[in-house]
Amino acid sequence: MRIDVVSIFPEYLQALDISLIGKARREALLDVRIHDLRDHTHDRHRTVDDTPYGGGAGMVMKPGPWAEALSSIAGAESGAQHADSSRPLLLIPSPAGEVFTQAMARELSEREHLVFACGRYEGIDERVYEFAAEHYEVRPVSLGDYVLNGGEVAVLAMVEAIGRLVPGVVGNPESLVEESHSDGLLEYPVYTKPSSWEGRDVPEVLLNGNHALIARTRRAWQLELTAERRPDLIRALDPDSLNRRDRDTLWHAGFMIEDGCVVARPAD
Q: pTM here?
C-alpha cells in the first residue's frame, strides 16, 4: 500500500518512522511518503494561507499550493481524467467529514493508494475539493465531534489504524480478530502474571484451562463492558447475531430484544 501525506509540518509525521508502522515501512509493506505543502509555493515567504472572503476569524489555506501538490502526487496534469477504479483516494481530515471507524479502517486497508491532506487554520479553500475530484476519489473524514488544530494528529491515528490491518504489518493476525470494535463490541478485560497482585486476583475462570468456558466468559464480559461504556454500540447490534447466552447477559445488563431491535429494557 502507498500512503502520501501532505502537510505544512512534515516533522509532525515523524512518528510514522517508529513502532509497527515504521517497521512496515522498512520492510516495504507500507510505502509512506511525506510531502511539505510549502514546496509548492512560489513566493519568498512560502505562503499557504490568506484571509477568508466574506470576513470571519482566522485564515484559509490557498487553493494554488494544494492543487499543485495533489496534481504532482496523482501524476496528472490539471484537467486530466481518470477511470474511477484507478484513482487514488484522497482523505481530508475535517470536523465536517464522516466519522472514522474500525469498519472504515478495514475498508481502507484494502486500497492500493491513499492520500491525506492535512488542513490547518480555518480549513482548505472549498474549491480544492472540487479540483481534487478530477484526479481523486475525495472523502472528508473526522475522528469525532471535536476540533483539532490541524489534520496531522488525525492522520497519525488513521494511518496507524489502517496500516496495522495491512497483511504482514501485525505479527500475529489473530490479535486483530479479538480487539475492540472488530465485532462491534469493546474488547474484554485482559490479565497477565502474576495471578495475584496487590490483593487483586486474576478471575479464576482464566486459570482453569477450560477454553470453551473462557471464550463464553470473555464474550459475556464484552457485552457487559460495552453495555456499561458504549450503550450505543449495544443498540446497534443485530439481534440475529445474539445467541441465548448473549441475550441473557444483555438482559442482566439492562437490554432486551423488541421488534427486531436491541433496546433498553424497563427498570422493573
A: 0.85
